[in-house]
């Protein structure tokens, strides 16, 4: 478990630090970036938020609050509190047209910065839990690497970056999106900002 949580944080830090991000959309307080590497598409959503970074961190690291701003989350329950900094959740998501509803078993690892210039981190990845086998009514999907980095800008504002390395399990939600025919990433980002503020 210690290795899993370490690699969860490390994978997100590595993804965030990659060179070659292309900006695809820039609004007042939301920027959307993509990064392609072989068959792997990653995206980053950068949000300017008028709350202190520690407040954004405490709200975003509690995934039971996620349904309040992310309409892709239908249900979210804590399966296991591994430690103060790690929890395992079972998440179900609403069905997209022509697709079965999906479910995920995810490990959420949270870390406070060790040094002032470092970000707060909330890393997410899929794990396998024997107690929660795949169910026929859901299509079990996998999150390779996702999560938030929260950088403090001032005592009352921060920049929240959401990252997701996209697998075929998440693609239906994004395909329409990145081509610009749907605004779901933008809308979700704006809901997130509204929720945090």
From TrEMBL:
Organism whose genome encodes this protein: Vidua chalybeata
START domain location: 18-166
UniProt protein name: ACO12 thioesterase
One GO CC annotation: cytoplasm
InterPro entries per UniProt: START-like_dom_sf (IPR023393), START_lipid-bd_dom (IPR002913), START_lipid_transfer (IPR051213)
Gene that produces this protein: Acot12_1
Pfam families: START
GO molecular function (one): lipid binding
Classification via SMART domains: START
């Amino acid at each position: 478990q210690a290795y899993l949580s370490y690699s969860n944080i490390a994978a997100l830090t590595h993804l965030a630090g990659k060179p070659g991000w292309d900006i695809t959309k820039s609004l007042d307080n939301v920027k959307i970036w993509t990064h392609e590497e072989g068959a792997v598409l990653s995206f980053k959503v950068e949000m300017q938020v008028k709350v202190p970074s520690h407040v954004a961190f405490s709200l975003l690291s509690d995934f039971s609050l996620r349904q309040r701003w992310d309409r892709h989350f239908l249900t979210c329950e804590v399966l296991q509190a591994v430690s103060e900094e790690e929890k395992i959740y079972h998440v179900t998501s609403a069905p997209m047209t022509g697709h079965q509803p999906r479910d995920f078993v995810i490990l959420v690892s949270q870390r406070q910065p060790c040094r002032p210039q470092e970000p707060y981190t909330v890393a997410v990845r899929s794990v396998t839990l024997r107690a929660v086998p795949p169910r026929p009514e859901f299509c079990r999907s996998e999150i390779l690497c996702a999560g938030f980095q929260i950088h403090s800008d001032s005592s009352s504002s921060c920049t929240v970056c959401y990252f997701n390395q996209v697998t075929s399990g998440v693609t239906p939600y994004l395909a329409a999106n990145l081509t610009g025919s749907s605004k779901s990433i933008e809308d979700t980002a704006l809901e997130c900002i509204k929720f945090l503020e």
